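Troubleshooting: if your tokenizer reports a length mismatch, compare your output against this known-good record of 323 residues.
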Amino acid sequence: MKAIVQHEYGNANVLLYSDVEMPTIGEGECLIQVAYASVNYADIKARNGDKGKGNFPLILGLDMAGTIVEAGTDSRFSVGDRVIAFPKEGSYAQYVVANEQLIFKIPDSLSFERAAAIPTVSILSYLLLHEIGQIRKTDTIVIHSAAGGVGSMLIQLSKLFGVQRVIGTVGNLEKADYVKGLGADIVCTYETFVEQVFIHTNDKGANIIFDSVAGEVTGKSLQCLALFGTLVQFGNSSGKVGTIKTSDVHSSCRNIKGFSLGTTRKHDPARIKPIAEKVIQLFDANQVSLPIAKVFELSEAAAAHQLIESRSYKGKVLLKVEE
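Known-good structure output:
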């Protein structure tokens, strides 16, 4: 089968379109033919070696949508089932193996292209909003990197729930119309969001801030986080560590919560199933949808990575794998 393989860490040119052996399933696993794989910023960090060391040759990719082609005798899945999944190895391949706990059926009415946007960014966003951030309709929330995949979903899901005020931050105001179109009430840059938060909250600050950037953005977020507010930290796309002091939290009664979908998949996969089912229903009912920035062929994975790194896209980047 064909897959995108890398034999060393480096820039997008280390991603090679190659022939590899077909994976085989074990107990409690299924073999899935990939229709679309999504490209996430985490893939860039993994390609560079910033997410810990992997074993070469390495296949990247966190998630995919496709069709079951082999299942165990006692499996709850059948050949032909349409699914989304988090595979054991990378998803940049024609076929992948996944643990049944991390495979979720999708209805025939939901296209593979739309479904491929669900696993990482949409499930993560729902968890962040409702379990980690525990948003309320009366909240003012800040969503950093609002034009990215997770940001796009956080905005839609928060407005669907009825959150009063959503402030989105972007690196470039050329993305402002896109972010407002998703439902954000205010869009500003990382340089101005602290001031804008105070203006729109009568100097009280934001109730919840979702931070996947870290670095200086984390410190600025704490400057405008309200009393009893929550900073949800779930990434560091800036590549820099954010600094948090104990004095930032105890006297102000504020909370700092960290979350990783990867850690949850590894250590508590059962937690994901009910969330996946809810999100799939929302997509199928057209209550939310993730705009697709661009679809690349599997062989064009390097170009997809270059687009992600340019940060000049809006929404989700996919790899089309099915023949």
